[in-house]
From TrEMBL:
<feature type="domain" description="NADP-dependent oxidoreductase">
    <location>
        <begin position="86"/>
        <end position="333"/>
    </location>
</feature>
<dbReference type="InterPro" id="IPR036812">
    <property type="entry name" value="NAD(P)_OxRdtase_dom_sf"/>
</dbReference>
<dbReference type="InterPro" id="IPR023210">
    <property type="entry name" value="NADP_OxRdtase_dom"/>
</dbReference>
<keyword id="KW-0560">Oxidoreductase</keyword>
<dbReference type="InterPro" id="IPR020471">
    <property type="entry name" value="AKR"/>
</dbReference>
<keyword id="KW-0521">NADP</keyword>
<protein>
    <submittedName>
        <fullName>Aldo/keto reductase</fullName>
    </submittedName>
</protein>
<dbReference type="InterPro" id="IPR018170">
    <property type="entry name" value="Aldo/ket_reductase_CS"/>
</dbReference>
<dbReference type="GO" id="GO:0016616">
    <property type="term" value="F:oxidoreductase activity, acting on the CH-OH group of donors, NAD or NADP as acceptor"/>
</dbReference>
<dbReference type="Pfam" id="PF00248">
    <property type="entry name" value="Aldo_ket_red"/>
</dbReference>
<feature type="region of interest" description="Disordered">
    <location>
        <begin position="37"/>
        <end position="58"/>
    </location>
</feature>
<comment type="similarity">
    <text>Belongs to the aldo/keto reductase family.</text>
</comment>
Length: 342
């Protein structure tokens, strides 16, 4: 059995963990205008990171979209801060798993960690970060931490920001995101994020699960700071081209959650004939091909895993490039088909 067939479905029950999260997801989404789920959950394989290959010749094709620096492995956000373009997602990980995965990821070379209040593992991410700092693996300023405010916290977003800071054990958060569109009160919540940028608690702010240009613009037109990032479900079968083209005018970067299809769906992508064929040509795994595609097309990518070997392999995507012909083949996989239904 392929290792990715061992991944948990996002609807699998786990005492005190994923089942409770998903119940909250279902309850809180009532009345939201955009559906989707947060985070990346697919486990992947890994090996040691190879040398960088420099700037990708393909890159994002959208005019005005922020350029990725493949030498620095970062993108400069419209807030002026540099963000790593490859990170670790922690959706569905327990506190203990998140602590270990965060530590392993930082040792492997990752400098971006993505979590959320609704994941229930901000404390674990903070512990993993602190362990890496204590052991001299990283300094706090080397690591870019993203977390998200859940919809039920929108009415008291200021308090939610402070609580996330406490759980993570940090003095500032590099990027905080509203987790879902919720027209009833997401503008108020975003304005709380803006105030936190002003007082230094947050450095950059953004959105997740805004799938229609009109919905994105609704919030932008009612607020002052343009979103630095939009995190939506994005993978070869749902490439988010419309939203990427739309947000380019704001200098907003797209980040992919479920970048490999998400738990329970990864094998569908890994078995795709095009992806498998490209993987064989490069001597890489299907997961590495998909991750490399995300980066070359201009998607910040956050695959997730609780397996150290898989985490290492996820970062081993810097010593090869997909050709223009291979990128065209990947583009042709677009089906406008999401795997999630929340």
């Amino acid at each position: 059995m392929d290792r990715r067939q061992r991944e948990l479905s996002p609807f699998a029950a786990r005492p005190g963990g994923l089942a409770a999260i998903l119940l909250l997801l279902c309850l809180a989404l009532t009345g939201c205008t955009a559906t989707g789920g947060g985070g990346s959950g697919a486990e992947t394989e890994s090996g040691d990171a190879g040398p960088g290959v420099g700037a990708s010749p393909q890159g994002p094709a959208v005019s005005g979209y922020p350029a990725f620096d493949f030498d620095a492995r970062t993108v400069t956000l419209n807030s002026g801060y540099e963000m790593p373009i490859l990170g670790l997602g922690t959706f569905s990980l327990s506190d203990e798993e998140a602590a270990d995965s965060t530590y392993w990821a930082l040792k492997a070379g990752f400098r971006l960690i993505d979590t959320a209040r609704i994941y229930g593992n901000e404390t674990g991410v903070g512990r993993g970060l602190q362990r890496a700092i204590d052991e001299g693996v990283v300094a706090r300023e080397d690591v870019f931490i993203t977390t998200k405010i859940w919809t039920t916290d929108y009415d008291d977003a200021d308090a939610a920001i402070n609580t996330s800071l406490e759980r993570l054990g940090v003095d500032y958060i590099d990027l905080m995101i509203l987790h879902h569109s919720q027209p009833a009160n997401d503008v108020d919540a975003y304005q709380a994020l803006e105030r936190a940028v002003g007082d230094g608690r947050l450095r950059s702010i953004g959105l997740s699960n805004y799938y229609e240009p009109e919905d994105f613009d609704r919030l932008v037109e009612a607020t002052s700071i343009r979103p630095a990032l939009l995190q939506n479900e994005t993978h070869p079968y749902h490439q988010s081209g419309q939203m990427k083209e739309h947000i380019a005018q704001y200098g907003t970067v797209l980040e992919s959650w479920f970048p490999l299809g998400g738990r329970g769906n990864t094998q569908t992508l890994f078995d795709d004939e095009t992806i498998s064929d490209i993987a064989r040509a490069h001597g890489k795994s299907a997961a590495q091909i998909i991750i490399r595609w995300h980066l070359q097309v201009g998607n910040v990518c956050i695959p997730g895993s609780s397996n150290q070997q898989h985490i290492n392999e996820d970062y081993d995507v810097w010593d090869f490039e997909l050709t223009e012909a291979e990128m065209a083949r990947m583009a042709a996989l677009e089906r406008d088909a999401r795997f999630s239904n929340y």
